[in-house]
Amino acid sequence: VYIVAPYSDVPAGTSVFVRLYQDGTPIEDTSEIQADQDYHNTCLNFVFEPIEGTFDPGSYEAEFFVNGNPAQSVNFEIR
Question: Among the four residues 13, 26, 68, 73, which has the most C-beta atoms within 10 Å?
């Protein structure tokens, strides 16, 4: 599963990670990245891979955390 934040402005020192939820339960966090400089109109990419095989069917949410604080999220279904 690819989680993307296109056209993002990220000031130097900003830390970002994404938390993946399945059916409302947190199941995995990406590694946190930290901007080493100011980025303008950049694309942030995060990847979640199943441990074995494929992801289980269900409702998922990917929530961005910026400097440790919840930010935007996206909901999706895996069937």
Answer: 73
Q: Residue written as tokens 């990220």?
A: 10
Phi-psi region of 53 (alpha: psi -120 to 50; beta: other; left: phi over 0): left
Angle at 77 between CA 6 and CA 46, to 5 degrees: 35
* pLDDT tens-place string over residues 32-56: 999 999 999 999 999 999 988 899 9
The conformation of residue 13, written as its DSSP 8-state character, comes to T
Q: What tokens were used for 1?
A: 């599963």
Please tell me the distance from the alpha carbon of residue 56 to that of residue 16, in angstroms, as a whole number: 26
CA pair distance 28, 26, nearest whole angstrom:
6
Instruction: Identify the structural domains of the chain with CATH numbers, from first to last.
Output: 2-78 (2.60.40)
Report residue 38 as tokens. 């100011």
